[in-house]
Amino acid sequence: MNVELKTLNAEQAADFAADALLVLVPDAAPKGDSPMHSMIAQALKGSDLEAGVGKLLTAYRPAGFKAARVVLVRAGQADAASLRKAVAAGVGALKGPGVAHLGLVASLVAIDNAGLRAAIQAVAEASYVFTTTKPSAKPRALARVSVGVADAGSLRDGLREGRAMVAGVEFAKEWANRPANHATPTMLAEAAKKLARGGVIKTDVLGPKQVEALGMGSFMAVARGSAEPLRFIVMHYQGAAKADAPVVLVGKGITFDTGGISLKPAAEMDEMKFDMGGAASVLGTFAALAELKPAINVVGLIPTCENMPDGLAVKPGDVVRSMSGQTIEILNTDAEGRLILCDALSYAARFKPRAVVDIATLTGACVIALGAVRSGLFSADDALAAQLHQAGESAGDLCWRMPLDDEYAEGLKSNFADMANVAGRAGGAITAAKFLQKFTADLRWAHLDIAGTAWKSGAAKGATGRPVPLLLQYLIDESQRPAPDAAKPAKATRGARRKG
Ligand code: BES
Ligand code: MN
Ligand code: ZN
User: With 70 as the cut, is the pLDDT of residue 499 above it?
Assistant: First the structure.
């Protein structure tokens, strides 16, 4: 889907030759006497174009217009949230096979960069089709979107960022939507290598031998039960001076989570193909970085494997040694995400990062706590938490801060190891975060639990591409902020010892 900006007034918009026009209509009728003006004035006067953002009125071959289909949609105050809703409704009504070129007329509303971005994202979202394993699916017909605005010059940033976000979200959706037999750890690593072909990204892929040499006993324990070999993907995007401390993104890459020996029930187990949603969001963010090229350094770390039951699989009660040197009693093999992330977090320290953010479909408890609206945000660092929260608000990809009181870690105590991998059922999203925190002593760290937001269930089953918009927004904001003095944690918790 190609998106371009055009400076158009209302008269020119009516003359614009696209297959369809989607006209964003403000609450107050704009002044003028062109065919566009009179159509809008009449629609607003009658009761056919109801009040309310996203309400529509469709016309076919109206006099004075070049486009065959013209849809008027109410855009309210034209803020980002209203535009997202209005464009989603409009494109939903227009995504028929005949519409390859859409004219999105935003000349009559007061649209800013954030609004343009939201509109571009909404067009993409409403027209997305997954075709990789479904030959009978009709691919997206929409190939070209021309956004008509009063002054294209002032909206260049919104266009660039909107395009990059769409590229990132669609990359993440593609990989998260693929079934586990079309998205093995090896295939994810190949996708990461392919992203490096453009030249701005560098990808290294480590296999079982190298991961063993690093001492990642926790990550290795999860992969043991699978015939698919694990991969540890390390990506670099360099947009700033080499010496600038990077942001490190760590994505959970469980390509299928059966639960292991602590086997999950059969119902909806297919959805555990989405358990690499964190990894997909890191890949998607890198795809977006390659397009936008912001002035920042970013490292992406993806521990990826399957969680399977098998004769070789790790058993409840087994004790493993993590890269940090801390030992872990694996009481429940279904709490595997934290086991692969903890070693990746230990690895992250070597980059002396300005911040580390891990992204994981980590707990069903987070779905219970926050549903599908907001991702769970955990950080002991108030500034980092505020920055991520704000990035989510700006990008329309919301999250909500959760607590990290040390009392929540009580249940992780073990008689046989430095910690257990699970606590009780209560506060499950928080105890999972407390587990991860034990591996972040030297880091400015935040954790995003995206178990409720990375995909939709039911008839609309599919990946959402979240939280790529939040992450990209955070990195854009971060590229415009001076680096924090030293990458140090907000408060001292029990230290993670590193080997050697
Ligand atoms: N991948 C799941 C988390 C999950 C569950 C995400 C349901 C979305 C929907 C994770 O690996 C898991 O199984 N977590 C367990 C942890 C428990 C054993 C402490 C859970 O949430 O039940
Ligand atoms: Mn699990
Ligand atoms: Zn999982």
Answer: no
